[in-house]
Amino acid sequence: MPKILILKEVTAKSACGTKIIVEQVFEKILNQSGLIWLPLPKIVIRENIIDLNENNIFTHPATGKVFEVMNEKERFKFKRKIQPLY
Length: 86
What we know:
By secondary structure, the protein is mainly β. The chain has one domain (5-69). The protein has strands at residues 5-14, 19-31, 34-45, 48-51, 57-59, 66-69. A six-stranded antiparallel sheet has the order 4-3-2-1-6-5, with no helix packed on it. Strand 2 and strand 3 form a beta hairpin. The protein is elongated and about 40 Å long.
């Protein structure tokens, strides 16, 4: 089965309080709860793919500022469609 990836806008914050919106890469996976989107440690800024470290921190390529991707409380998941058997 091929990997299904999407980009989702997330917030990143610097130590001085500057907030920016970046796109994080998510992969569709199946777990015990059903199909979910798992965040990968990669973001996209102006068509550049940037790897996050283990603390979700990256250096902005244009400014050199260090940002941390904020964890979202709600992760989105697929709604399961139930079809009748008959």
